[in-house]
Amino acid sequence: MQYFEDIEVGRTASFGHYAVTREEVMDFATKYDPQPFHLSDEAAAATHFGRLSASGWHTCAMTMAMLVAHLKENRQAGLGSPGIDELKWVKPVYPGDTLRCENEVLEKRVSASRPEMGIFKSRMRVFNQDDVVVMTFVSNGLVQTRPKTRLHSPPKPGAP
Q1: What is the pLDDT of residues 33-73, one digit of tens each?
Q2: Strand 117-127 relative to strand 98-110, pairing
Q3: Residue 96: CA atoms inside 13 Å, Cβ hemisphere, count?
Q4: I need a surface site. Which of 6, 43, 55, 151 has the fewest CB within 10 A?
Q5: What are phi and psi of 38, to 5 degrees?
Q6: How many CB atoms within 10 Å of residue 125?
Q7: Three-state DSSP class for 12?
C-alpha cells in the first residue's frame, strides 16, 4: 500500500492503453455531449476537427479508466480528490487513436486541518499513438498518511 510518505515529488509514471472506437465516441456523445462534430462525419468535416472526434469529456473519462486500472495495480491509500486544475484539450482525439498517460508528482503537503491525510498535485499528460499530447491537467489528490503503530502495549491496570 502506498501512503503519503511514499509519494516522491518529481516521480513520473507511464501507464495505460486505451483504444478509442467510433462506437464508443458516438455512444458517449449521444448521452453526454451531443454536438454535431461528435456525432456526424459530415458535420465534423465542416469544422476544424476535420472528422468525427471524441468529446473532451470523453477523453477525461477514458483517462480516468486508465488511472483507476493503474491504481488497482499500484495500490494507494487514496481518499479521493477535491478536483483538477488547468484542464486543456490540446489536440482532438479520433476513433482509431490509442491513448496512454504520463503522470508527474509536482508537490505535496500534509493537510493542516486533517494531519491523517496528505495532499499532492500531479500533472497528467495524455498522449495518442503518435506521442502527441492530446490533453493535460493538474490533479489534486488526497491520500492517507501512514498509520502510526504502537511499539509497546500500554500497561494493564494493576500490573507492576
Answers
A1: 999 999 999 999 999 999 999 999 999 999 999 999 998 88
A2: antiparallel
A3: 5
A4: 151
A5: -100, -5
A6: 19
A7: strand
